[in-house]
Amino acid sequence: MNLNLLRIFVQVAETSNITEASKALFISQPAVSKAIKNLEASLGIQLFIRDKHKGLLLTEAGREILVLARQMKAIENSIYQIAGRENRLLGGKIKVGSFPAATTNLLSKAIAVFRTNYPLVKIELLEGVSDQIKQWVEDRTVELGIVASPLDSLEFEKLQSDYMVAIVPADHPLAKEPIIDLNCYRDEVIFCKGGHEIAMNSILREYRIELGEGLTVQSAETLIRMVRNGLGIGLISNFTLSSVSHDLVVKEIRPGVTRDIGIIAHSFGEISPAAKQLVTVLLQTGQESGEGFE
Q1: Which contiguous run of DSSP H or E holds residue 235?
Q2: SS (H, E, C) 51-86
Q3: 3-state helix, strand, coil in the chain (%, to 5)
Q4: Locate the HTH lysR-type domain: which residues (predicted)?
Q5: Which tens digit of pLDDT belongs to each residue from 87-122?
Q6: What does the angle CA 114 – CA 116 – CA 119 come to, to the nearest 5 degrees?
């Protein structure tokens, strides 16, 4: 199997465009087209469907081969990393998926420490919500993911615990209350989703609480602006809230809603040497940062 053809195939599959792939690979468009034709000929199957409006679309077989091609690229990367480690020059690339709050609170600190020790390793970051990141790990788009529980069948290393809190302005009547009972204020809640829906819905079902038809937002910044404007009581993950600046009062909620934040991979035993080192740094960073969230 020609690994160069596979590398070109992966790039075309991820961009769905010959022109974009040629720019990323620094080779001509005819060379990219020829490589794809050669790969299809050698396999005896069609990998792409040419659509005038959507560009190149993977066939069912193409999607399956893409996952395997990414694995082969990862194995090649690991081979070079092992050789580099033996020469004390660990290099290569790590693709990591993370949600924004984790990038701010954990990953940025970990990368700063990691780069001091391994300056030749390139880290490529993709940001999304936890469900997206889990899928990226599943289909090998990224090697590691930082996500919030609940988790699926992927291997998981806990970084720290998190919990939901309520936020109100300093002049709000509830600002002096020790705990805000969600059952009493269900119609006033503004919920910041941010990937917390499953954990939140699970605890609400357990306590038979149905929130009213309030507002639902995607970002902490939007939630903070709405709460400042007196539109309701904000409900947000403490971990996410800590990644943005605000002047609101943070209150405990009843019932409590907790979750774990951690690293996922197909198998920590099979990730590249560089990724293993990054996991070690992330675990240390999570332990040091976690004291502020427990």
Answers
A1: strand 233-237
A2: ECCCEEEECHHHHHHHHHHHHHHHHHHHHHHHHHHH
A3: 45, 25, 30
A4: 1-59
A5: 666 778 899 999 988 999 999 999 999 998 888 899
A6: 85
Tokens (6 digits) for 203:
């605890």
Q: What is the rounded distance in angstroms from the CA atom of residue 29 to the CA atom of residue 104?
A: 38
Q: Residue 28 belongs to what H/E stretch?
A: none
d(Cα 139, Cα 71) in Å, to the nearest integer?
9
pLDDT of res. 52? 77
The model carries a pTM of: 0.71
Q: Angle between the 60-86 and 273-290 helix axes, to the nearest 10 degrees? A: 90
pLDDT at 129: 85
* CA–CA gap between residue 152 and residue 137 (Å, rounded): 11
Cα–Cα distances in Å, from 56 out to 13, 46, 48, 204?
8, 12, 6, 44
Q: List all residues 6 or more positions away from 245 whose beta carbon is below 8 Å from its beta carbon.
A: none
Q: Which residue in 246, 251, 232, 237 sits closest to 190, CA to CA?
A: 232
- Structure tokens of 270? 């099979």
Separation CA 103–CA 90 (nearest Å): 23
pLDDT (average), residues 243-259: 89
State how far the Cα of 188 lies from the Cα of 182, in Å rounded to an integer: 9
- Rg over CA atoms, the chain: 23
SS (H, E, C) 79-90: HHHHHHHHCCCC
End-to-end CA distance of the chain: 50
- Tell whether the model's pLDDT for residue 205 goes beyond 80: no
Assess whether pLDDT exceeds 60 at residue 213. Answer: no
pLDDT of residue 33: 92
